[in-house]
């Protein structure tokens, strides 16, 4: 624990606000591919996953946003029939 209102895997108010903004941004970016609720879940789950082992939490919300974006991008490529790593069609 470090910041008031923050548990090991739950964001404090400041991080929660940043994560919500990130989820809204990514929901617009992936509109038509994923629902806003799925995007939000991905963002907050990414935060929880990283928070479990984070020693320094300063940039945790930003790092979780990047991780969620990578997850969503790879899933979108997979769903489009491409290779998640490079977007090449799977054979």
Report the span from N to C terminus: 48 Å
Compute the number of strand runs.
0
The level of helicity is 55-70%
Strand content: under 5%
Shape, principal axes of CA atoms: globular
The number of helical segments is: 3
Main sheet: strands, sense, barrel: none
What is the chains' assembly state? single chain
Description:
The protein has 91 residues and is mostly helical. The chain has a domain at 31-83. The chain is 58% helix and 0% strand. The protein contains three helices and no strands. It has helices spanning 13-29, 36-51, 60-79. Helix 1 crosses helix 2 (36-51), helix 1 (13-29) runs parallel beside helix 3 (60-79) and helix 2 crosses helix 3. The longest helix has 20 residues, at 60-79. The radius of gyration is 14 Å and the shape is globular. The relative contact order is 0.15. InterPro entries: Phosphatase-like_N (IPR048716). Residues 19-76 form the Protein-tyrosine-phosphatase-like N-terminal domain. It comes from Arthrobacter halodurans. This is Three-helix bundle dimerization domain-containing protein.
Features:
91 residues; mainly alpha; 3 helices; 0% strand
Q: What is this structure's SSE topology?
A:
Elements lengths: L12 H17 L6 H16 L8 H20 L12
């Amino acid at each position: 624990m470090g910041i008031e209102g923050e548990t090991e895997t739950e964001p404090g108010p400041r991080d929660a606000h940043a994560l919500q903004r990130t989820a809204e941004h990514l929901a617009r970016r992936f509109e038509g591919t994923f629902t806003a609720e799925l995007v939000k879940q991905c963002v907050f789950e990414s935060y929880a996953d990283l928070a479990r082992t984070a020693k320094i939490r300063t940039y945790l919300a930003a790092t979780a946003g990047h991780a969620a974006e990578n997850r969503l991008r790879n899933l979108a490529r997979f769903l489009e029939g491409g290779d998640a790593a490079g977007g090449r069609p799977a054979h």
